[in-house]
Every structure is written in C-alpha cells, then in structure tokens.
Predict the structure.
Amino acid sequence: MTSTKESANAIASGIRSHQQLIDGEWVAAASGQTFDDINPYTGEVFARIPASGAADAKRAIDAAEKAFPAWAKLGARARQALFLKAADIVERRADELVSIMALETGASNAYSRFQIQWSAGLLRQAAGYPYLSGGEIVPSDTPGVFAMAIRKPLGVVAGISPWNGALALGLRTVVSPLACGNTVVLKPSEEAPICAGLVIGEILHEAGFPAGVINVITHAPSQIGPIADELFESRAVRAYNFTGSSATGSMLAARAGKHLKRIALELGGYNPMLVLHDADLAYSVDTAIFASFFHQGQICMNTRKILVARPLFDDFLERFVERAKALKPGDPTNPATKIGPLINDQAVAKVRDGIASAVALGARVVAGGNHNGRCFEPTVLVNVPTNAPIYCEEVFGPVVLIEPFDDEQEAVQKANGSDYGLSASIMSRDAWRAITLAGQIEAGMVNVNGPTMGGEPQIPFGGVKDSGWARFGRWAIDIFSDLHLVTVSEQKRHYPF
Ligand code: NAD
C-alpha cells in the first residue's frame, strides 16, 4: 500500500489517482493509504485507489443511515428523474467507459459496449420502480375493515459487486435497492474498484443523487476483513446485495443469517448447451463459440459444457475447434480484439490447473491449452472424465468441454449434473420439444436457440441451486422492500370479551 504523498508522484507519471465517495464528498481513505490497481493486459499500475478500513466503512454506513429518511420519503417523480439522468450520463460517457473497462478489467470493446447498453437499460428500468412499489389493498374478512399492504424500503443496503461484468453488475448491485427507497454502501471488487464502484459513484453523484444516498468504499486485496465486519455487524445495514462466487456467497449468507438479515445472492454457474439432433449446425457453432468465449470465459453465464447429439458430434467438434483456434487473445484496447486477458495471475493458474488435472485423468485438449502471460487461448476439451473437477466446477476462463449424447434424457441428466443452476441453452429446429426439455433443466434461465448468456435488464435474472436465488428486473422490488400492513376499521368491532 502507498500513502497520499506517493500518489502525487503517481499523477505525474500518468497513473490515475482516485478518491472514494462518502456522504457526497470525494475523500481519501481515513488512513491515507492507497493500493495499486493493475492493468491485466500490461501488468502495469493503472490507478491508485483508496485502501479503506473499518473507519471508512463506518463513515459510509453512518452517511447512508443519515440520508435514508429523506430519500425514503422522496416522491416517485423526483426519484425517477435521477435514474433517467444517470442513464443519459452512462451513454454520454460510453467511449471513455469502454477505455476504462479495457484498461482495468481487460474487457473487449464488444463486451464493454454490451455492458454500457445493459447499464443504461438497468437505470431506465429502475426509473419505473418507484411507481411500482406502492403496495396493494388486501380484501379483509372482517366487515368494514380496509387493509393496506404498504411497501416500504428497508434502510441501508450494502452492495458487494464482482469484477467481471464490472460496470453492469456494479450498477445492478445498487439500482434496485436505491429505486425502492433504500440508501446504499457499495463495496466493489478490489480487482475493479473503478468500473465496479467509483465510476458508478461518479455517475450517480453527477446525476444528482443526494449526499449519503450512494456511498462507495474501496479496499486493497486481502484487506476486506475490517470492512466486512463493519458491514455485517452494523445494526443499521438491513440487507445485502451480493454478486460473486458461490463460495463467498455461502460464507456471507451465513454471516447475514447470524443477524437474521436478508441477502440477495447471484452466484457462479456451470452452464450447459444442448445441441439436439435436429439443430441448425452452423448456427449452433456460432452460438456456442460466442457463449463459450465472450469475455474470455469470465462471465457467470458462459457456456461451460456442450452436449451434442451423437449424429452431429464429429461435424460440430470439427467446426467448433477450427473457430476456437482462430480466436487469438490480445490487447483489449484494440477494438478488433475479440478475446482479452484474464483478470490476474491467480485466474490464469486456476484455468491451467483445471485443464492439467483433467488431462491427467484422461481428457484430451483439441484446441488451445496454452497462455502467453494472462492471455489464455480458447481451449476445448473432450473425453473429460466425470471425476475431473472441471467436469462440473467453474474454472472461470476460456475453457469448454464437448461431449456426445445418445438420448435426450441422458443430455438432461448431464446438464443437471453440477451443483450450479444459472443458465442453459437448447438448440433445436423443434422449438416445442426444446421448450418441453427446458422445463426439465435445473436452471434459473434457459434459452432455446440462443446462447446461455441472456442478460437484458428487465428479465427475472437469477439462478437456482448453488447459483443463488435472487431475481432482478422488477422482481427485485420484493427483495429490497418490506410489506407493512395497515388496517382501518370503518365501524366499531365486536370482541368475544
Ligand atoms: P468473489 O466471490 O471472489 O468476490 C465477489 C465480491 O465479494 C468482491 O467484491 C469481493 O471483494 C467480495 N468478498 C470476497 N470475500 C469477502 C468477504 N470475506 N467478505 C465480504 N466480501 C467479500 O467473486 P469474483 O471473483 O469477484 O467474481 C467471479 C464470480 O462471480 C464467479 O463465480 C461468477 O460466476 C460469479 N458471478 C455471478 C454473477 C451472477 O449474476 N450470477 C455475475 C457475475 C459473476
């Protein structure tokens, strides 16, 4: 970690120096410490970021608690206007955001533009939630009683965001809670503190969200402990919106559960694609290539396993391997680059080890398998034995398994064979048969004749099993508000004594 004095030198060297957002002010960490934000492609320092601790988290929680009553009372029209303005700011800053996402997270131009479109959509969808979250009238069995179930915000919500879909998922962590009238402390991933946090603070601050309504605090790698303690032990924080790995999600759910607080969980995935015997082969290959390798396999919804009807298997494999070999990872700041670097060296090691252990157990690499620094080749594995960890665990990189199946029930069984249940896709010319099979797949989202990735802001996005349980889109209103019952008796009631 470095001090504020050293960050003055960083500015001179062209390295961006950031502050965090607490109570409407851009401030350094209370300790004055910073940490280096690394460009995953070059390995160079890209920015210096406040390295916060418990004192910063407490200040942010206090600011959010103080801002809550006025924000909760603000009228729907005023709240809506802020979200619409924020969406316009996202679009105005699009080119700059593309550049920051490439430098901080290795995102390709196409992936960054997808995130920008999604982010603006999220904000515009959320702009309608203040009008949707009034509550309802409940018919009463007691004559003359009028019962109102009134929706109310919860209070302070802590958002914990991942690095991989940094901008869109960082925004998803905050927009629903805010739109429901909660105030937020956002703690972005230490791997993308700018895109998954500070830039979101800038956008919402510029849009005019009042001081303390959105706070963003950042921390150095391995320094989450004191901040997590503040966020999870504070009585003022009423709920958590977490997107990240299933392992972290499980641990944080236990922490939230200890204090009987709610936590929305959007976790990892191991997403199968089923190519049925009547599928359009060329389109299936196009879809599978995109779904397997977009953002170099670092999206929760990437296809991890492709199950192909045996009559199509050889042809599918040949075409898929040829396409995979043609995808060359490179510099994400070049708009022509389709595949960028992995986020860090640990991610590279995880992918490498996943492939190596599968190969040791008899799997065959038919494309890729190597890396140059953090640039990992799109990799295709066949004959992967069921006891290889990669057979059902997410390695979160550009690796996909392909295997044949003989009958569709076998394919469904294999598709359901992991602990995850985020998304799946089924390719077939017979859409009705595919829909029937879709009902048997244990996943929160199934796309027929589309990729496993289906992120639109208005869908009930979310998984089952170890992929979590939260649903976004307007369904998030149920998570981030409470129903309070108020009844009124028109006349005197009669009691048994
Ligand atoms: P991660 O679990 O390592 O980190 C996610 C967040 O949790 C980060 O902000 C991190 O700092 C924080 N965190 C880690 N330990 C913590 C602790 N002890 N207390 C409090 N916070 C803690 O995940 P990641 O590597 O950032 O993201 C990749 C994972 O997220 C993959 O598994 C991917 O599938 C999943 N993901 C899921 C979705 C979805 O919508 N389902 C979307 C994106 C990513």
